[in-house]
Amino acid sequence: MIRLVVMMYVRYPLSLRNVEDLLFERGIDICHETVRLWWNRFGPMFAGEIRRKRVQHMRQFNHWKWHLDEIYVRVNGELRYLWRAIDHEGEVLGSYVTKTRDKAAALKFIKKAMKRHGRTGAIITDGLRSYGAALREIGAADLQATGRWLNNKVENSHLPFRRRERAMARFRRMKTLQKFSSVHASVHNHFNQERHLISRGLYRERRSAALAAWRAVLS
Fold it and tell me: Which among 77, 75, 138 is positioned nearest to 106, based on CA atoms?
């Protein structure tokens, strides 16, 4: 039950009350505040378990290209920045929330990503100077590449989060934004099967495997 509620709230652009109403139609009567409590308490636990298994698997391969980008998010009416790193296949490697987008923020974000996933062969960024300054600081300036359309992949990866953000009617604290963006990224990675690139039969097979793996998380 808890896994179903967390999956519905995090994976789909639904509000707390939307989830409450959908569950009620299935004969499950819970309050929307219970939905909030469950995703806050168990969402990070589920996401952490999924992330641990995926990182162990991904470390077996060479992540030869990363894409880095940042977007602004309003938190209680003030602008904050959500940094995101994805690999060349669109897998979200990490997200990090800061008040600024200067060199210090970029440096901390890149270090966190490298600590978890190891060093990459190339880093694609936009024209923000903070990236270049941060990469020079760690001796990785030669890895950076910029271009007008090179970073379209990571810019498109923001779209699922933006849809989810609208359903949540914005965030009120940076801590909540950081928690939700991390959980959302892990759940999105787990269920993202790129259905437009594979056959219907293969998609159904992978979807069933992803659901089975989700039901087995922390069971």
Answer: 138
